[in-house]
Structures are given as structure tokens and as C-alpha cells.
Amino acid sequence: MCLTSWLCSMRKRPSMPRKVSRAGAWVVGFTLTALALNGCASIGVKPWERDLMAQKAMAVDSHPLQSAMDEHIYFSKEASSGGRGFAGGGCGCN
Amino acid sequence: MKLHVFQMRFANFTGLAKSLALIIVALAALNPSAHAQSLDLAPYKGKVIYVDFWASWCGPCRQSFPWMNSTYADFKARGFEIVAVNLDQDQALAKTFLSNFTPQFPVVFDPKGVVATDYHVKGMPTAVLIGRDGRMRFTHDGFKPEKESEYVSHIMALLDEKAP
Amino acid sequence: MQLVNKRRSNVCRALAAAAAGLLQSTQANAADTTTTFESGVLYYKENGGRVQAIEPSVTASYDFGNQHRLSLGVIYDSLTGASPNGAVPSTQSQNFVTPIKIGSTKTSVTSASGGSTIISIPPTPGQLAQAAFGRQYTVDAGKLPVDPGFKDQRIAANVDWSQPMFEGSTIGFGAGFSHEHDYQSLGAHTRLAQDFNDKNTTVSLALNYEHDTSRPLGGIPVPFTSMSPQWKGPNDGKNGVDAVLGVTQIMNRFWLTQFNYSYSWSNGYQNDPYRVISVVAPLTGLPVDNLYESRPEKRRRQSLYWDNRIHMDRDVLDLSLRYFWDDWGVHSITADISDRFSFARRWFIEPHGRFYHQDSASFYKPYLVQGQPRPANATSDTRLGTFNAYTGGLKLGWIPNKVDELGLRVEYYKQVGNGHPPGAIGQLAKQDLFAQVSAVSATLSYSYGF
């Protein structure tokens, strides 16, 4: 599945309020531009090119306990919360 | 002689579309330029060859080496060969890894993934088992300790065959 | 750790994130280790004798084979100190009286808290026996009103299971709880992840449900009633649902990018039961009353989050941006950057910086004015006000082997808000109406696997 088309379709969803697309336009725009420039075919790596992705420091959440503590402090002090994700990357080993 | 290995998996033939796809893949593999640096298995003609694609950063690969060492020792006399294809970008890391396992079988270095591309490696590790007839017969995606007996049964089945 | 007041509904969520993150991070070393531990102790201290906290935590994870992984996490925290009660400073000293439970081990007043005295309340008809006493504290002229009798302990635990489902997909689910003497939270979560493009693309969905019960000392006050030591209404609670939809993409060998959309909905008791808002006289600006705050019962939060990890030889750069908004009128932007620099083979040093800006909730007001029409909702909680926040930190890490890591991180956090809003009445023009926060924290962490 091509990510570009997936993101495009996500952007067109009527359930996304106008505020969302305006606010995140530059973020989505940048990602789309990056994807478009690369072209779907050349994005990503071969299974044997994941040596750096296999490193702990490159994991989506490399220090979960630290992240949880940070989130907790910021949640206690600020009105915003959340946003982080958890999946993807890694060594992709079978 | 260079053995051209085609995608001829015996298992998983589930339809015409899949067969057609595999034929296309096989035809693509015939492109001679893709084999410029491909693996030369000529010295092992008539033997059962276990081609293992691995890298030092891959956890299951680490588990597979002791098993490969003992399996190689068990079946070498019956015409079993292992060729380990290393895919590390940095060969020094591979050498450190190897110093921990001292494999008795040959290791070739393929940092650009030329051989891995030829063999359509989908993940790390991948092992391709080639029969005495020179054809690709089994593919093991990953290395799972609980499947060791299955891997061995594949090897023994091929060892029992006669060279053409 | 709640740090200040009663806004802790994401306790389970934070733990769930920790468990989920652990699951993810251990995948990198899959089959290298079957058991991993992540442990840490956080020490946190705010300026001016305000909140001080110590928080040890540990998460253990065990792989039963084939990436069937069970994780258990426990967090304990203990905090003491003074917390702003929401009232404005004044040129005159102010007395505040709040409920107290006498003859119970659960009393929140200790001799160590200082500054509070127990007073007897003149009996009034129809009143509960417990309300015969109250706790009074005095705030000097010109000082930010803080409640000195603040002491709390929390224990939270989380369990999480994850396993592969179909080819290239992972499912996980779990539950968590958090307990304090005046707040309890129960939650359950599930998440799904599916790989595409030779595992270069991962699409994930996480769902969380949480039920919180608030049982403050003295009961739940009716919004906009005067602060008093009288025992008040029964417990109250709220329910919340969160969803995170994410796409993670390996761009090339060096660059991992992630984009998330989060939606969060909660309904129920959203107030801080201990927090008041001052009512001031229209000309002098002197406080004449303190009313319990009032927030809407419903809140819908959304955020967009974009994270990039870039590997540059000896450095790993992590850059993330978040845009957050909710239907309370809060908008915020967060930029976070860290760079992990490896040296001497087994060491790394990681500077960290964060910038945060938020615009206030529509019902944020530093005070109410006597005689003016009362709004539907009002809070003086500066955490719902407009401010910038800055974080700077440094982490030193030691990696004895591939799996283990010892780290020490020190950070400084500072909020900067406008303490002199235009139009401040009378004496208020001279007061700092933003409860400035600055804090230092230190984290010692150790993770290991075997």
C-alpha cells in the first residue's frame, strides 16, 4: 500500500474538522512533499538495511519509563497531553 | 557453473495467479546483469546447500548460529553445506559477531545486498535450502528455536534424495 | 505523581504508554533477551518550597516466545509541599479554612506540613459532626496563596499483553489502576499495529477507556459556592476515552518518521475540588470571597504529533512537534529536540530542549469581580492560562552491553506567563497574578535484560 495515497485519503475525510487540516497543514504538507519527492517506490529500506533502525536509540519510544515520567510532569503542569505513538520501526526481524 | 536459483517453492502453490507471479519473478532472475556478483555455488554441486542470510544486529540471527554450527557438524559427512551470507554494512561488526561463534562453514560478505536481492530475502534472517538437484526447495523465514526439528527434517529429506 | 492538585486522569495512560513503549523497544532486541526490566527514580522539586516529589518505578517484561510478551509496571510516588489554591494575592493577609478529617489516619495534615492550624467551627444546625473542625492557614500580604498542608502518595500498576496476530500485525491489551487517598482511576486499553511495505510502514490504532473517581477530603463542593470547612457532597467521577491513530514510516536507513492523530473525550467531574477563584471588590481589587471553581463537564481534546528520529553516525537526533487543541479553547504547540551523542564506545551524552506555548481556555480568569454577571464556568488555574514553558536538560548514559543502560538526567523547567494582565483592578495591578513555576528534576534510570 502506498503511504501517499493513504495520507491523501485521510486528509479528505469529512470527519476531520477544518481546524485540523489548517493546523496540521504544514506538517501533513511536509510529509506529503517528502513522500512525493521520494516517490513511493524509493521510500523505505531493504530488510538487510535496518541495522540503524535496530538500535535502541532509533526505537519509536526508546525510553518508555522516561517518557511516561515526562508526560506525567507536563500533564500536571500544562493543559495539553498525549500525542505520542508506539508502533513501527525496529529491526523488522523475522 | 553458476546455479541459477528460481523461486520454485513446493509449498504455497495456491493458484494460477501466484504461479504466474512466480514465473515472472523467475524470468526477472534470469536477467544476467543481476547476477554479476551473485553467489557462486558451483563448488557445492550435488550437495544440499543451506544459504543463510544474516546480520550482526539481528537477534534471531544470534540464536541461529549455534544451531547452524551443530547441524553442520551433524550432516557435513552426508553432503550438507552451509553458506552464510552476511549483510552488515560495517564488516567489522560482522567479524566481532563471528568471533563469538567461530563457524566452521564459509561466510561471504554482501554489504550491498546483491545476493540478498537475487534471493528475494524478505526479512532477517532468511535461510534458503537448495536440494542436490540445484533447485531452491525450502525457505525458512526467520529463525525460531521451536521450529528447529522442522528445519532438520527439511535438511534430512533433501539429503535422502539422489543427485541427478 | 500529580505534582499539584487533582488532575491525574492519565495515570493509567502514562503507564500504558510505558508498557507499550517497552514492548516496542524490546522488539529491536527480540530473541536477545526474554526478560527485561526498566527501572527509574525521579526526583522533582519546585521553586519557593512548593511541590517536591520522589517517584520510583519499575516495569518488567517477559517474552513467552514468538513475541508473546507480558509486561507489568508499578509506580509509587510521594509528594509534599505547598500548592497554589487559586486565590489572588492581596495587600492584606488572607485566611483560608478547609475541611479536615479528625481521628483518622487519612488526615492530610501532618506536623511537617507546617503553617496550618486546626480550628473548631461554631456548630450550626443540621451539620455533620466531622465539620466541627477545620484547617486554617494564613497567607501573608503580597504572597501567592498556597495551601501548605499538601501531602500525597500514589500507587499505580499496569499490566499489558501483546502478541502477533496475523502476518505483520500485533495486538495488545491491558489494564491499569491508580490509587490515592482521594482519587482513584481504573482503565483498560487495546492497540493494533499492522505492517506494510516490507515492514517499512506501520499503521497503528490504540484505544483507552478510563474511569476516575474523585473523593476529595471534605467531599465534592458545589461550583461557585464559598470555600468552607463544612463537609460537602458525595464522590464524583468521570469517564474518558482516548484514541491514537498513527503511521510510522522508515524513510531511509537513517530516518524514521511518525505521524499521529489523537482524539480524547471525557465526561464528568473535571474540577479541581480544592481550588478556588477569588471574588474581588470592583474598585480596590481586594478579595471579598473565595468560590470553588467551575469547569465544563465535557472536554474533547485532539492533537497532531510528528516525530522524527535521524541517525547521523555518532548522533541520534530526535525532533518532535505537536499541535494540540480542545473545545475548552486551549491551543498549544510543542517542539522537542534531543541529540544523543555517543562517545568512548560505551557512553552517550544527550542534551534536550523543549519549547511549549499554550493559549488559555475560554473560561480562564485570574479572578471574578463582585457585582458583575457570573460566567457559566471559571477557573483561575494558571495551567489553563496563557504561558510559555521552557525545558533544558542533559542526560549522561552508560551502556555496559547491548541491552543494559544506566542513565542520569538532570532537567530544568520554567513557565513564563503574564502576571500583570491589562485591566487589573486596584491592588491587583501591583500583584503577580500568574503562579510562576520553575522546577528541577533528576532521573536515575537503569534498564537491563537477560
Write the layout of secondary structure elements.
The complex is a heterotrimer of chains A (94), B (164) and C (450).
Chain A (H helix, E strand, L loop, with lengths): L2 H10 L5 H6 L1 H14 L25 H14 L17
Chain B lengths: L15 H15 L17 E7 L4 H17 L4 E7 L4 H11 L5 E3 L4 H5 L7 E5 L5 E6 L6 H13 L4
Parallel strand pairs in B: 1-2, 2-3
Antiparallel strand pairs in B: 1-4, 4-5
Chain C lengths: L10 H17 L7 E12 L5 E12 L5 E16 L9 E6 L16 E5 L12 E7 L6 E19 L4 E12 L2 E14 L4 E14 L21 E17 L2 E14 L7 E5 L6 E6 L5 E15 L2 E12 L4 E13 L3 E13 L8 E2 L17 E12 L6 E13 L20 E12 L1
Parallel strand pairs in C: 13-19
Antiparallel strand pairs in C: 1-2, 1-22, 2-3, 3-7, 4-6, 5-6, 7-8, 8-9, 9-10, 10-11, 11-12, 12-15, 13-14, 15-16, 16-17, 17-18, 18-20, 20-21, 21-22
Main beta sheet strand tally, sense and closure of chain B: 5 strands, mixed
Q: What pattern of helices and strands is seen along the backbone of chain A?
A: HHHH
Q: Distance N terminus to C terminus of chain B? A: 15 Å
Our Rg estimate of chain A from Cα atoms comes to: 17 Å
Structure, explained:
- The complex is a heterotrimer of chains A (94), B (164) and C (450).
- Chain A is an all-alpha fold and 94 residues long.
- Chain A has 2 domains: 44 residues; 49 residues, no CATH class.
- Chain A is built from 4 helices and no strands.
- In chain A, helix 1 packs antiparallel against helix 3.
- Chain B has 164 residues and is of the alpha/beta class.
- Chain B has one domain: Glutaredoxin.
- Helices cover 37% and strands 17% of the residues of chain B.
- In chain B, strands 3-2-1-4-5 form a 5-stranded mixed sheet, covered by helices on one side.
- Chain B is globular.
- By secondary structure, chain C is mainly beta.
- Chain C has 1 helix and 22 strands.
- In chain C, strand 20 and strand 21 form a beta hairpin.
- The longest helix of chain C is centred in the N-terminal third of the chain and has 17 residues.
- Chain C is elongated and about 70 Å long.
- The N terminus of chain C is likely disordered.
- Classes of the chains: A mainly alpha (94), B alpha/beta (164), C mainly beta (450).
- Chains in contact: A-B, A-C, B-C.
- The interface between A and C is large, with 62 and 106 residues.
